[in-house]
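INFO  loader      accepted 1 record
INFO  loader      residues=291
INFO  predictor   begin
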Amino acid sequence: MQRKITLIFVMLQLTLINCLAQNGKQISKNGYVKQKDYFVEIPFNYINKHIFIEVIISDKKNNFLFDTGYEISAIDKDISKEINYTLKKEIELSGSSVSTQKVGLIELPNISISNVSFEKTYGMLQDLSFIKRNYETIKISGIIGNNLMRKSKWQIDYLKKVIHITNKTDNFAGLQNAKKIELNNKDWGLGYVNIELNNQTHKFIFDLGSSGEFTANLSFVKFLKEKDTLIQQDKQTFRVGKIKIGEIEINNKSITLEKYVSSLLGNAFFENYLLTIDWEKNILFLNQNTN
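INFO  predictor   done
INFO  writer      dumping tokens
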């Protein structure tokens, strides 16, 4: 996302995490998939290096952002009168960079993606205008967060622009030849990957809501060879040497440093691979795209 959106996104998410810290695990793990054995394929739109998928809530089709870096799925307040939900709690968010708003923690009876039905998952009812204003040509009604994703196995094919969803990774072919990246996290919340830059290991958020490749805060410059460089811009790019992520090694890449953002590994990196996500085993499988 653009820097301003990323800032608001991060501030809201951090505030939510702090407000819900005591019940975070319960909120994240609530819900289940109705089907016991399933394998479906859905198309997605890839716009400005963001993934958008169709979901069905209360028999209505909606366009949602697909975001592993959002801990709890979000529903835009504009569709609140069109869907069924149970309000669990109201939280007031505020901060130096975001306007005060009330956010509702809700339970959704059903969210369907293709014919896969996610039952009784939690979501946040909130104002998503900070995303929508940058996509005037499409309607965005929510965000699929990783609390819902963790209930299935996902495979993202950036070349064919399709996502496969299943109950077991054995349904995916070619994983024995894939490079593996370990996700370092609990059984709920954000997923992190260890990235080795210039022989130093750092934690980056596995964030498919980020359009960037390697992104970090401006303070990250102290870990680079250019650590004595005076940063004058809000956003600056540096070349780095060898980068190691799990079983993947790449050379001569760049890292973008920006104000206010966390360390993120985003779509601009993963679009080079067929990406399979196994939240249960905390493993990412990456098959190099042939082109």
